[in-house]
Amino acid sequence: MLLEINNLYFSHTKDKPLFQNLNLGFEEGRIIALAGESGCGKSTLLNLIYGLLDWESGEIIFNGTRLLGPKGNLVPGEAEMKLVAQNFDLMPYATVAENVGKFISNINLAQKKETVLELLEVVGLQEFAGVLPKYLSGGQQQRVAIARALSVLPKLLVLDEPFSNLDFSRKIELRERLFRYVKQHQISLIISTHELQEIMPWLDQIVILQDGRLIQNESPEETYKRPYNSYVAKLFGEVNIFSEEEAADFQLPKFSYYPKEIKISDHGTEAELLESRFAGNHYWNKVRVKNKELIMYTDEKVEGNIKVSFE
Ligand SMILES: Nc1ncnc2c1ncn2[C@@H]1O[C@H](COP(=O)(O)OP(=O)(O)OP(=O)(O)O)[C@@H](O)[C@H]1O
């Protein structure tokens, strides 16, 4: 196990404990998402792992070493662990390339230059090599910090919401290059996000926190198909949630159905169409079935009343 969290207790304030007996393990070489609603404790957990906060009791073991937290260790983070938080801590008077190369040895300057260029390419900032950080946007600065963290080839890279400052097209480019790079270099990655859907194809494991509690820790497929509760299902985007009574009334085996899991079917239940709107790669439809409003996606625009089935 690369990282182990055992019986961890932590509170920001006395009256409101955040983690109570948290237990969690991360295996080496994996890409792991830490997900949950805003305020569930993602950033706090990452800061604890990186040694920026002291915990009350329990232990965090990284690569066989028991971590100490700031009280016991003045320099946060182990040599083989890097965190890129939401404040990027760049050197203001050094160029982008110098920032990226900060931790790379000067013994072989040609090699250093090549590595810096490769990393700038990974984060899509080649043309900014000679620019000072203050001329970059927040999202660009964050990418410089990611490239700098990658430069030391850490065993574990911890990224706190790395795509939050990026527009959609940049996000798609960066995430693919970044995930390929970490896999190629056997870097384990923990990435906090509230946009799970966007990084799903690259994930090996999803850890879900709700109010500081670990509520699910499984593969992306398992988590998506069998969410522990409605809170988990909602992290994957739009979803129809059924109460126990409703599920019984509809004779459904599950409590949640994604909009794609409701289909038009001649053998289905009568549904009243309320709206059908073009949404790009599907039509977004609102229908009423047995007095319950449901969202379903279809390939074609829906007209007139229909029958629907649940898959
Ligand atoms: N320095 C602090 N002092 C007191 N409470 C704090 C502090 N930092 C965070 N909290 C509280 O701890 C809880 C967890 O916060 P945290 O920032 O870890 O959540 P998060 O899941 O990362 O949220 P987000 O997705 O918005 O970044 C929240 O209720 C937050 O208000």
From TrEMBL:
Family matches, as Gene3D superfamilies: P-loop containing nucleotide triphosphate hydrolases
The entry's keywords: ATP-binding, Nucleotide-binding, Transport
Keyword Aminoacyl-tRNA synthetase: no
Keyword GTP-binding on entry: no
Segments passing through the bilayer: none
Pfam families, per the entry: ABC_tran
InterPro entries reported for this sequence: AAA+_ATPase, ABC_SmlMolc_Importer, ABC_transporter-like_ATP-bd, ABC_transporter-like_CS, P-loop_NTPase
Coiled coil: none
MF annotations from Gene Ontology: ATP binding
Domain ABC transporter, residue spans: 3-236
Protein's name in the database: ABC transporter ATP-binding protein
Organism: Chryseobacterium endalhagicum
Upper classification of the organism: Bacteria, Pseudomonadati, Bacteroidota, Flavobacteriia, Flavobacteriales
